[in-house]
Design a protein that fits this description.
- About 10% of the residues lie in helices and about 40% in strands.
- It is mainly beta.
- It has 2 domains: about 120 residues, SH3 type barrels (Roll); about 130 residues, endopeptidase fold (from Nostoc punctiforme) (Alpha-Beta Complex).
- It holds the Pfam family NLPC_P60.
- It comes from Pedobacter boryungensis.
- InterPro entries: NLP_P60_dom, Papain-like_cys_pep_sf, Peptidase_C40, SH3-like_bac-type, SH3_16.
- Keywords: Hydrolase, Protease, Thiol protease.
């Protein structure tokens, strides 16, 4: 079996089981590399290269690539920038419209490549740089404000809490794992909320003590997070306060710093 593939469409659902009715656990974006672990006639079980996440997807949404193309990390550094108009033109002159943070494999001189297929960029790509993290992270996060909440989502038109911070970090040169509980295992602990800085991540738990939510701190008293939509709310030692609902919606567990 040819194991190495790349997502060939703007966004592809990654499902818990091999069925169109199954829960979407995440999404692949254009240019995401995957390893195929198992395959049926329509479905394949894949593991993502960028965050080792597993799920089932429709095999037709993938493009085969070589082992060499799969492992060429230095040729997968350019991404679509924080803007709406990220249009690619395929060799048949049809258009692809990509969400911010999509990978542009083997980018060179206005073109990127999926396997042997060539795509023309109608925009200037972004080379994420973590040295400018503090300068750019707030603007990046606020670009997604009012994006609707979608379980498993990773795009401007539907995103979940961990997909939101993962995408914002990717656009600023930092790689995070997929789920909030996984992300909470990394980074350095910030002892007090009063010490929180712009770009830190706050994690929240449920009644069982399991991390179920994450947001990005905009200082030590405000947070931007995906809950219903990407929104900005006040935060204190108890957690996130939603003024519309008149109550606390998420109980603060820990704050982590990644840069």
């Amino acid at each position: 079996m040819d194991n190495y593939h790349v997502c060939r469409i703007a966004v592809a659902p990654l499902r818990k089981e091999p069925s169109d009715r199954s829960e979407i656990v995440s999404q692949l974006l254009f240019g995401d590399r995957v390893k195929v672990l198992e395959k049926t006639e329509k479905w394949c079980l894949i593991k993502t290269n960028h965050d080792n996440y597993e799920g089932w997807m429709d095999y037709k949404q993938l493009q085969k690539i070589s082992n060499l193309q799969f492992t060429a990390d230095n040729d997968h550094v350019y991404v679509t920038p924080v803007q709406l108009n990220n249009t690619l033109i395929a060799s048949d002159r049809s258009a692809y419209y990509l969400s911010p943070g999509s990978t542009l494999p083997f980018y060179e001189n206005g073109f990127c490549y999926l396997g042997d297929e060539k795509f023309e960029l109608k925009f200037t790509p972004l080379l994420p740089n973590k040295t400018n993290f503090k300068v750019n992270v707030e603007k990046t996060a606020k670009f997604f404000e009012n994006s609707p909440y979608l379980w498993g989502g990773r795009t401007l038109f539907g995103i979940d809490c961990s997909g939101f911070v993962q995408t914002v970090y990717k656009l600023n040169g930092l790689q995070l794992r997929r789920d909030a509980s996984q992300q909470a295992e990394e980074g350095e602990l910030v002892d007090f909320l009063s010490s929180a800085q712009l770009g830190d991540l706050a994690f929240f738990d449920n009644e069982d003590g399991k991390i179920t939510h994450v947001g990005l701190m905009l200082g030590n008293d405000k947070i931007i997070h995906a809950a219903g939509k990407v929104r900005i709310d006040p935060i204190d030692d108890q957690g996130i306060y939603n003024a519309e609902l008149g109550r606390y919606t998420h109980k603060l567990r820990i704050i982590k710093r990644f840069i």
